[in-house]
Amino acid sequence: MQILIRPGDELPIYRQIMSQITEALAVGRLQPGEKLPSHRELAEELVIAPLTVKKAYDELESLGFLETQRGRGTFVCSRLPKLKMADQREQIEAAARKLLSLAYMVGVDLGGVVEILRKAEDELLHGSHSAASRAAG
Amino acid sequence: MNDVLEFRNVVRAYVRGVPVLNGVTFSVAEGEVVGLLGRNGSGKTTLIHIAMGMLFPQGGTVRVFGLSPTERAVEVKKRIGYVAEDQVLPRTSSIAELIAFHRYLFPRWDAVLERQILDRFSLHTKSKILGLSKGQARAVALLCAVCHRPELLILDEPAAGLDPAARREFLEVAIQFLNRAGATILYSSHYMDDIERLGSRAVMLDEGKVFLDAGVDRLREEYCVVLIPARSVSDAEILTRVPGYLRARRHYGDWHTVFHGSPEAVKKLLEQSLGSNGIRCARTNLEELFVELMARNEEQETP
Questions:
Q1: Model ipTM?
Q2: A76, A103, A127 — which closes off a domain?
Protein backbone atom coordinates (compact mmCIF):
# COMPACT_ATOMS: atom_id res chain seq x y z
CA MET A 1 0.00 0.00 0.00
CA GLN A 2 1.32 3.44 -0.87
CA ILE A 3 1.65 5.23 2.42
CA LEU A 4 4.33 7.73 3.22
CA ILE A 5 5.27 8.19 6.85
CA ARG A 6 6.97 11.31 8.15
CA PRO A 7 7.72 10.98 11.88
CA GLY A 8 8.57 14.66 12.42
CA ASP A 9 5.33 15.78 10.74
CA GLU A 10 2.43 17.71 12.28
CA LEU A 11 0.36 14.59 12.89
CA PRO A 12 1.26 11.53 14.94
CA ILE A 13 2.04 8.51 12.77
CA TYR A 14 -1.26 6.69 13.39
CA ARG A 15 -3.13 9.81 12.25
CA GLN A 16 -0.97 10.01 9.12
CA ILE A 17 -1.95 6.44 8.26
CA MET A 18 -5.63 7.19 8.91
CA SER A 19 -5.69 10.29 6.74
CA GLN A 20 -3.81 8.61 3.91
CA ILE A 21 -6.19 5.66 3.89
CA THR A 22 -9.28 7.92 3.89
CA GLU A 23 -7.66 10.01 1.15
CA ALA A 24 -7.07 6.87 -0.93
CA LEU A 25 -10.74 6.00 -0.41
CA ALA A 26 -11.91 9.47 -1.42
CA VAL A 27 -10.07 9.39 -4.73
CA GLY A 28 -10.84 5.73 -5.41
CA ARG A 29 -7.30 4.38 -5.11
CA LEU A 30 -8.75 2.05 -2.49
CA GLN A 31 -12.05 0.38 -3.35
CA PRO A 32 -14.86 -0.87 -1.10
CA GLY A 33 -14.30 -4.53 -0.28
CA GLU A 34 -10.56 -4.35 -0.95
CA LYS A 35 -8.26 -6.21 1.44
CA LEU A 36 -5.65 -4.28 3.38
CA PRO A 37 -2.26 -5.65 4.43
CA SER A 38 -2.24 -7.05 7.97
CA HIS A 39 -1.03 -4.62 10.61
CA ARG A 40 2.17 -6.64 11.00
CA GLU A 41 2.88 -6.54 7.27
CA LEU A 42 2.22 -2.82 7.04
CA ALA A 43 4.35 -2.23 10.16
CA GLU A 44 7.32 -3.94 8.52
CA GLU A 45 6.77 -2.13 5.24
CA LEU A 46 6.58 1.30 6.89
CA VAL A 47 9.16 0.47 9.59
CA ILE A 48 6.93 1.49 12.46
CA ALA A 49 5.62 -0.33 15.52
CA PRO A 50 2.85 -2.86 14.74
CA LEU A 51 0.77 -1.34 17.55
CA THR A 52 0.73 2.00 15.73
CA VAL A 53 -0.78 0.42 12.60
CA LYS A 54 -3.24 -1.47 14.75
CA LYS A 55 -4.30 1.78 16.39
CA ALA A 56 -4.91 3.40 12.98
CA TYR A 57 -6.90 0.37 11.78
CA ASP A 58 -8.92 0.25 15.00
CA GLU A 59 -9.83 3.93 14.75
CA LEU A 60 -10.84 3.55 11.10
CA GLU A 61 -12.87 0.53 12.04
CA SER A 62 -14.73 2.42 14.75
CA LEU A 63 -15.44 5.18 12.22
CA GLY A 64 -16.92 2.59 9.88
CA PHE A 65 -14.33 2.63 7.09
CA LEU A 66 -12.71 -0.74 7.72
CA GLU A 67 -13.92 -4.07 8.99
CA THR A 68 -12.02 -7.03 10.36
CA GLN A 69 -13.22 -10.45 9.33
CA ARG A 70 -11.92 -12.97 11.79
CA GLY A 71 -9.21 -15.15 10.32
CA ARG A 72 -9.42 -13.38 6.96
CA GLY A 73 -8.00 -9.94 7.60
CA THR A 74 -8.94 -6.30 7.37
CA PHE A 75 -11.12 -5.00 4.52
CA VAL A 76 -12.52 -1.72 3.30
CA CYS A 77 -16.22 -1.66 4.20
CA SER A 78 -18.52 -2.23 1.24
CA ARG A 79 -20.66 0.71 2.31
CA LEU A 80 -18.62 3.69 3.41
CA PRO A 81 -19.88 6.17 5.98
CA LYS A 82 -20.27 9.82 5.16
CA LEU A 83 -17.97 11.97 7.23
CA LYS A 84 -19.78 14.40 9.48
CA MET A 85 -19.46 17.89 8.09
CA ALA A 86 -19.03 19.38 11.56
CA ASP A 87 -15.86 17.35 12.19
CA GLN A 88 -14.30 18.29 8.89
CA ARG A 89 -15.48 21.85 8.49
CA GLU A 90 -12.60 23.36 10.45
CA GLN A 91 -10.03 21.54 8.33
CA ILE A 92 -11.74 22.55 5.10
CA GLU A 93 -11.85 26.16 6.19
CA ALA A 94 -8.19 26.13 7.15
CA ALA A 95 -7.28 24.60 3.79
CA ALA A 96 -9.39 27.26 2.05
CA ARG A 97 -7.55 30.09 3.81
CA LYS A 98 -4.22 28.53 2.87
CA LEU A 99 -5.31 28.09 -0.74
CA LEU A 100 -6.56 31.66 -1.06
CA SER A 101 -3.49 33.30 0.47
CA LEU A 102 -1.28 31.26 -1.84
CA ALA A 103 -3.39 32.28 -4.84
CA TYR A 104 -3.42 35.98 -3.92
CA MET A 105 0.33 35.92 -3.45
CA VAL A 106 0.85 34.87 -7.07
CA GLY A 107 -1.91 37.16 -8.37
CA VAL A 108 -4.71 34.63 -8.97
CA ASP A 109 -8.09 36.12 -7.95
CA LEU A 110 -11.13 34.36 -6.50
CA GLY A 111 -12.54 33.64 -9.95
CA GLY A 112 -9.27 31.99 -10.94
CA VAL A 113 -9.30 29.87 -7.80
CA VAL A 114 -12.86 28.71 -8.51
CA GLU A 115 -11.78 27.71 -12.00
CA ILE A 116 -8.88 25.72 -10.56
CA LEU A 117 -11.27 24.01 -8.14
CA ARG A 118 -13.64 23.06 -11.02
CA LYS A 119 -10.76 21.52 -12.90
CA ALA A 120 -9.63 19.62 -9.78
CA GLU A 121 -13.16 18.30 -9.31
CA ASP A 122 -13.25 17.14 -12.90
CA GLU A 123 -9.97 15.30 -12.44
CA LEU A 124 -11.16 13.64 -9.26
CA LEU A 125 -14.48 12.50 -10.70
CA HIS A 126 -13.51 11.56 -14.24
CA GLY A 127 -9.81 10.82 -13.97
CA SER A 128 -7.01 13.15 -14.94
CA HIS A 129 -6.89 11.95 -18.54
CA SER A 130 -10.29 13.21 -19.66
CA ALA A 131 -9.69 16.55 -17.98
CA ALA A 132 -6.35 16.92 -19.70
CA SER A 133 -7.72 16.01 -23.13
CA ARG A 134 -10.62 18.41 -22.69
CA ALA A 135 -8.23 21.19 -21.73
CA ALA A 136 -6.18 20.45 -24.83
CA GLY A 137 -9.23 20.38 -27.11
CA MET B 1 -0.43 -7.19 32.87
CA ASN B 2 2.81 -8.17 34.53
CA ASP B 3 5.62 -5.71 34.95
CA VAL B 4 8.73 -6.91 33.18
CA LEU B 5 10.83 -4.10 34.54
CA GLU B 6 10.31 -2.06 37.66
CA PHE B 7 12.36 0.82 39.06
CA ARG B 8 11.35 2.10 42.46
CA ASN B 9 13.04 5.21 43.91
CA VAL B 10 16.34 4.27 42.31
CA VAL B 11 19.27 6.40 43.49
CA ARG B 12 22.80 6.32 42.14
CA ALA B 13 25.70 8.75 42.41
CA TYR B 14 29.21 8.47 41.01
CA VAL B 15 30.45 11.33 43.16
CA ARG B 16 29.21 11.40 46.74
CA GLY B 17 26.42 13.91 47.15
CA VAL B 18 25.91 14.38 43.41
CA PRO B 19 23.26 11.84 42.43
CA VAL B 20 22.81 11.10 38.73
CA LEU B 21 19.61 9.25 39.55
CA ASN B 22 17.70 10.66 42.47
CA GLY B 23 14.54 8.65 42.94
CA VAL B 24 13.60 7.21 39.57
CA THR B 25 10.31 5.34 39.59
CA PHE B 26 8.56 3.73 36.64
CA SER B 27 7.71 0.30 35.35
CA VAL B 28 7.43 -1.34 31.97
CA ALA B 29 4.63 -3.81 31.37
CA GLU B 30 4.88 -6.92 29.25
CA GLY B 31 4.75 -6.10 25.55
CA GLU B 32 5.42 -2.38 25.99
CA VAL B 33 7.97 -0.50 23.91
CA VAL B 34 9.41 2.33 25.97
CA GLY B 35 11.79 5.00 24.74
CA LEU B 36 14.09 6.42 27.41
CA LEU B 37 14.86 10.07 26.70
CA GLY B 38 16.98 12.69 28.36
CA ARG B 39 19.93 14.94 27.76
CA ASN B 40 23.49 13.66 27.83
CA GLY B 41 24.37 12.95 31.44
CA SER B 42 20.75 12.58 32.53
CA GLY B 43 21.40 9.01 33.70
CA LYS B 44 19.87 6.92 30.93
CA THR B 45 22.86 4.59 30.62
CA THR B 46 23.28 4.42 34.40
CA LEU B 47 19.66 3.31 34.70
CA ILE B 48 20.11 0.72 31.98
CA HIS B 49 23.26 -0.61 33.66
CA ILE B 50 21.27 -0.95 36.88
CA ALA B 51 18.58 -2.92 35.05
CA MET B 52 21.27 -5.16 33.57
CA GLY B 53 22.75 -5.81 37.02
CA MET B 54 26.01 -4.15 35.97
CA LEU B 55 25.62 -1.50 38.69
CA PHE B 56 24.08 -1.57 42.15
CA PRO B 57 21.48 1.04 42.98
CA GLN B 58 22.59 2.90 46.11
CA GLY B 59 18.99 3.43 47.05
CA GLY B 60 15.64 2.02 45.98
CA THR B 61 14.98 -1.24 44.18
CA VAL B 62 15.04 -2.62 40.68
CA ARG B 63 13.21 -5.76 39.60
CA VAL B 64 13.50 -7.52 36.26
CA PHE B 65 10.89 -10.26 35.73
CA GLY B 66 10.26 -9.70 39.44
CA LEU B 67 13.85 -10.67 40.32
CA SER B 68 16.88 -8.74 41.48
CA PRO B 69 19.26 -8.43 38.52
CA THR B 70 22.32 -8.51 40.79
CA GLU B 71 21.31 -11.41 43.04
CA ARG B 72 19.82 -13.55 40.26
CA ALA B 73 22.19 -12.30 37.57
CA VAL B 74 22.41 -15.43 35.40
CA GLU B 75 18.69 -16.16 35.48
CA VAL B 76 17.83 -12.60 34.54
CA LYS B 77 20.47 -12.13 31.84
CA LYS B 78 19.36 -15.29 30.05
CA ARG B 79 16.02 -13.63 29.36
CA ILE B 80 17.43 -10.25 28.24
CA GLY B 81 18.91 -9.12 24.93
CA TYR B 82 21.23 -6.12 25.14
CA VAL B 83 22.82 -3.82 22.57
CA ALA B 84 24.82 -0.74 23.55
CA GLU B 85 26.45 1.99 21.54
CA ASP B 86 29.90 1.21 22.90
CA GLN B 87 29.48 -2.55 22.95
CA VAL B 88 32.77 -4.34 22.37
CA LEU B 89 32.67 -7.53 20.34
CA PRO B 90 35.74 -9.79 20.28
CA ARG B 91 37.66 -8.25 17.38
CA THR B 92 39.54 -11.31 16.15
CA SER B 93 36.53 -13.66 16.11
CA SER B 94 34.57 -14.33 12.98
CA ILE B 95 30.81 -13.77 12.89
CA ALA B 96 30.34 -17.55 12.72
CA GLU B 97 32.37 -18.07 15.90
CA LEU B 98 30.44 -15.38 17.72
CA ILE B 99 27.10 -16.87 16.66
CA ALA B 100 28.23 -20.38 17.64
CA PHE B 101 29.17 -19.08 21.08
CA HIS B 102 25.79 -17.46 21.61
CA ARG B 103 23.93 -20.43 20.24
CA TYR B 104 25.78 -22.57 22.80
CA LEU B 105 24.78 -20.22 25.61
CA PHE B 106 21.15 -19.95 24.54
CA PRO B 107 19.34 -23.13 23.56
CA ARG B 108 16.26 -21.24 22.30
CA TRP B 109 18.24 -19.86 19.32
CA ASP B 110 16.14 -18.71 16.35
CA ALA B 111 18.03 -19.80 13.22
CA VAL B 112 15.44 -18.30 10.86
CA LEU B 113 15.80 -14.85 12.36
CA GLU B 114 19.59 -15.27 12.29
CA ARG B 115 19.48 -15.99 8.54
CA GLN B 116 17.12 -13.03 7.98
CA ILE B 117 19.45 -10.59 9.71
CA LEU B 118 22.59 -11.94 8.02
CA ASP B 119 20.91 -11.56 4.62
CA ARG B 120 19.42 -8.16 5.41
CA PHE B 121 22.84 -6.72 6.21
CA SER B 122 24.74 -8.82 3.62
CA LEU B 123 26.93 -10.27 6.34
CA HIS B 124 29.27 -13.15 5.56
CA THR B 125 29.74 -15.42 8.52
CA LYS B 126 33.44 -15.89 7.72
CA SER B 127 34.16 -12.17 8.13
CA LYS B 128 36.14 -11.13 11.17
CA ILE B 129 34.60 -8.57 13.51
CA LEU B 130 37.49 -6.13 13.10
CA GLY B 131 36.82 -5.86 9.37
CA LEU B 132 33.18 -4.81 9.77
CA SER B 133 31.79 -1.30 9.36
CA LYS B 134 30.18 0.34 12.38
CA GLY B 135 26.72 -0.44 11.00
CA GLN B 136 27.58 -4.08 10.35
CA ALA B 137 29.11 -4.50 13.80
CA ARG B 138 25.96 -3.06 15.37
CA ALA B 139 23.90 -5.48 13.26
CA VAL B 140 25.94 -8.42 14.57
CA ALA B 141 25.41 -7.16 18.12
CA LEU B 142 21.67 -6.95 17.43
CA LEU B 143 21.67 -10.45 15.94
CA CYS B 144 23.29 -11.83 19.08
CA ALA B 145 20.82 -9.90 21.22
CA VAL B 146 17.59 -10.96 19.53
CA CYS B 147 18.15 -14.47 18.13
CA HIS B 148 17.88 -16.11 21.54
CA ARG B 149 14.34 -14.70 21.64
CA PRO B 150 14.71 -12.60 24.79
CA GLU B 151 11.60 -11.57 26.68
CA LEU B 152 13.15 -8.14 27.26
CA LEU B 153 15.30 -6.26 24.76
CA ILE B 154 17.38 -3.39 26.13
CA LEU B 155 18.93 -1.03 23.59
CA ASP B 156 21.24 1.72 24.82
CA GLU B 157 21.52 4.28 22.03
CA PRO B 158 21.68 1.51 19.45
CA ALA B 159 21.62 3.92 16.53
CA ALA B 160 24.28 6.36 17.72
CA GLY B 161 26.96 6.93 15.13
CA LEU B 162 25.13 5.07 12.35
CA ASP B 163 24.29 6.67 9.01
CA PRO B 164 20.56 7.22 8.31
CA ALA B 165 20.27 4.14 6.07
CA ALA B 166 21.97 1.90 8.64
CA ARG B 167 19.73 3.35 11.34
CA ARG B 168 16.66 2.49 9.29
CA GLU B 169 17.91 -1.05 8.63
CA PHE B 170 18.54 -1.50 12.34
CA LEU B 171 14.99 -0.33 13.04
CA GLU B 172 13.60 -2.71 10.41
CA VAL B 173 15.15 -5.63 12.22
CA ALA B 174 13.88 -4.40 15.58
CA ILE B 175 10.36 -4.25 14.14
CA GLN B 176 10.62 -7.68 12.54
CA PHE B 177 11.72 -8.97 15.93
CA LEU B 178 8.78 -7.22 17.60
CA ASN B 179 6.43 -8.84 15.08
CA ARG B 180 7.88 -12.32 15.58
CA ALA B 181 8.37 -12.36 19.30
CA GLY B 182 6.20 -9.58 20.71
CA ALA B 183 8.83 -8.82 23.32
CA THR B 184 9.14 -5.90 25.71
CA ILE B 185 11.65 -3.25 24.66
CA LEU B 186 13.40 -0.47 26.60
CA TYR B 187 15.64 1.70 24.51
CA SER B 188 17.38 5.00 24.87
CA SER B 189 17.89 7.25 21.91
CA HIS B 190 18.43 10.83 20.86
CA TYR B 191 16.70 10.21 17.52
CA MET B 192 13.14 11.38 18.06
CA ASP B 193 12.05 10.04 14.67
CA ASP B 194 13.13 6.57 15.74
CA ILE B 195 11.29 6.96 19.03
CA GLU B 196 8.14 7.78 17.07
CA ARG B 197 8.59 4.85 14.75
CA LEU B 198 9.31 2.21 17.36
CA GLY B 199 7.97 3.52 20.62
CA SER B 200 4.57 3.56 22.18
CA ARG B 201 5.62 5.37 25.34
CA ALA B 202 8.33 7.86 26.22
CA VAL B 203 9.95 8.28 29.62
CA MET B 204 11.97 11.47 29.96
CA LEU B 205 14.66 11.78 32.63
CA ASP B 206 15.75 15.13 34.01
CA GLU B 207 17.61 16.13 37.15
CA GLY B 208 17.71 12.57 38.38
CA LYS B 209 13.99 11.94 38.15
CA VAL B 210 11.29 10.97 35.68
CA PHE B 211 10.20 14.34 34.34
CA LEU B 212 7.58 13.14 31.89
CA ASP B 213 6.07 9.72 31.22
CA ALA B 214 3.44 9.53 28.48
CA GLY B 215 2.37 7.72 25.33
CA VAL B 216 4.13 9.01 22.21
CA ASP B 217 0.82 9.81 20.51
CA ARG B 218 -0.39 11.63 23.60
CA LEU B 219 2.78 13.73 23.64
CA ARG B 220 2.00 14.74 20.08
CA GLU B 221 -1.69 15.44 20.64
CA GLU B 222 -2.09 16.60 24.22
CA TYR B 223 0.89 18.85 24.74
CA CYS B 224 1.64 22.13 23.06
CA VAL B 225 4.41 24.64 22.73
CA VAL B 226 3.37 28.20 23.49
CA LEU B 227 5.26 31.37 22.59
CA ILE B 228 4.42 34.32 24.78
CA PRO B 229 5.87 37.81 24.24
CA ALA B 230 8.18 38.56 27.15
CA ARG B 231 6.56 41.95 27.72
CA SER B 232 3.20 40.39 28.57
CA VAL B 233 4.67 38.39 31.45
CA SER B 234 5.44 40.74 34.31
CA ASP B 235 6.59 38.01 36.63
CA ALA B 236 7.68 34.60 35.35
CA GLU B 237 6.12 32.95 38.36
CA ILE B 238 2.66 33.72 37.01
CA LEU B 239 3.23 31.15 34.26
CA THR B 240 3.91 28.34 36.72
CA ARG B 241 0.50 28.93 38.29
CA VAL B 242 -1.40 28.42 35.01
CA PRO B 243 -2.91 24.90 34.96
CA GLY B 244 -1.04 22.49 32.70
CA TYR B 245 2.29 24.33 32.99
CA LEU B 246 5.40 22.20 32.45
CA ARG B 247 8.36 24.37 31.53
CA ALA B 248 9.30 27.87 30.45
CA ARG B 249 12.49 29.46 29.17
CA ARG B 250 13.43 32.84 27.81
CA HIS B 251 14.47 32.80 24.18
CA TYR B 252 15.11 36.14 22.50
CA GLY B 253 11.99 38.31 22.98
CA ASP B 254 9.65 35.51 24.00
CA TRP B 255 8.91 32.98 26.66
CA HIS B 256 8.98 29.51 25.15
CA THR B 257 6.71 27.35 27.26
CA VAL B 258 5.22 23.89 27.23
CA PHE B 259 1.72 23.19 28.49
CA HIS B 260 -0.43 20.10 28.83
CA GLY B 261 -3.65 20.69 26.93
CA SER B 262 -4.99 21.39 23.46
CA PRO B 263 -3.60 24.53 21.75
CA GLU B 264 -7.07 26.09 21.62
CA ALA B 265 -7.78 25.58 25.32
CA VAL B 266 -4.30 26.63 26.46
CA LYS B 267 -4.44 29.75 24.32
CA LYS B 268 -7.76 30.80 25.80
CA LEU B 269 -6.55 30.13 29.32
CA LEU B 270 -3.36 32.15 28.86
CA GLU B 271 -5.11 35.04 27.15
CA GLN B 272 -7.44 35.26 30.11
CA SER B 273 -4.79 34.97 32.79
CA LEU B 274 -2.21 37.23 31.14
CA GLY B 275 -4.54 39.60 29.34
CA SER B 276 -2.34 39.30 26.28
CA ASN B 277 -3.25 38.50 22.72
CA GLY B 278 0.15 37.93 21.16
CA ILE B 279 0.22 34.27 22.13
CA ARG B 280 1.01 31.49 19.66
CA CYS B 281 0.08 27.91 20.53
CA ALA B 282 0.88 24.85 18.48
CA ARG B 283 1.08 21.12 18.69
CA THR B 284 4.55 20.02 17.87
CA ASN B 285 6.67 17.02 17.00
CA LEU B 286 8.73 15.14 19.56
CA GLU B 287 12.00 16.77 18.62
CA GLU B 288 10.69 20.31 19.22
CA LEU B 289 8.92 19.21 22.38
CA PHE B 290 12.15 17.67 23.68
CA VAL B 291 14.10 20.84 22.93
CA GLU B 292 11.52 23.09 24.59
CA LEU B 293 11.41 20.87 27.65
CA MET B 294 15.12 20.27 28.01
CA ALA B 295 16.92 23.33 26.64
CA ARG B 296 18.59 25.56 29.18
CA ASN B 297 17.40 29.04 29.89
CA GLU B 298 19.25 31.83 28.17
CA GLU B 299 18.79 34.96 30.20
CA GLN B 300 16.85 34.61 33.38
CA GLU B 301 16.21 31.93 35.89
CA THR B 302 13.41 29.54 34.99
CA PRO B 303 10.30 30.38 36.97
A1: 0.84
A2: A76
